[in-house]
Amino acid sequence: MQTSATFDARDDNALSRLRHLIRTLVRARRRQHALEVGAVGLLWTMVVATLIVVAARVTVLDLPSWLVATSVTLVGALTTAVFIWRSRPDDMSVAIDADIELRLKQRLSTAWEYVRADAPRPIAARLAQAALVRRHARRPEHVFPPRYNTEGRFLPVAFIALMVAVMFEPAPVGDDSPAIAD
Length: 182
Hints:
- The chain has 182 residues and is an all-alpha fold.
- 71% of the residues lie in helices and 0% in strands.
- The protein contains seven helices and no strands.
- The chain has helices at 4-58, 65-86, 91-102, 107-116, 121-134, 140-143, 155-167.
- α1 runs antiparallel to α2 (65-86).
- It is rod-shaped and about 100 Å long.
């Protein structure tokens, strides 16, 4: 015969395993989000920096091109970092995404919703056990693998274009040849 202490220990184990699983999923999803959004932000930062450097070279702007490129890139990278931080997914949206990815039919998100809402302990524990038993054998890190989107693949091209724009001086315009004296 099982005692209530046995149920309490099993409930605690299920709840702590669910909390650990959600923490791991949230870390993996935020890493994936940072790579995806960061790649887009850095790509557009480098494109804008390249255009500004080229424009500075064509006009009579007396700033060094490396300074313009560095300033624009730093501002863009900081803006991208702030955007990544502000738009990071919360734990409930990660649980919903994991439900979809693992085909758990809302078991994980429902269990997490009950745990977050401080629902009665036996109910939350039973839902946590049901979600944990039915989850697939995939590791939580593999549910949201780190990956680059299409824009991330163009980062090296944008970086090379920026370096070319900074390194090469345009050919001087006008007649710089010395005048021949008569």
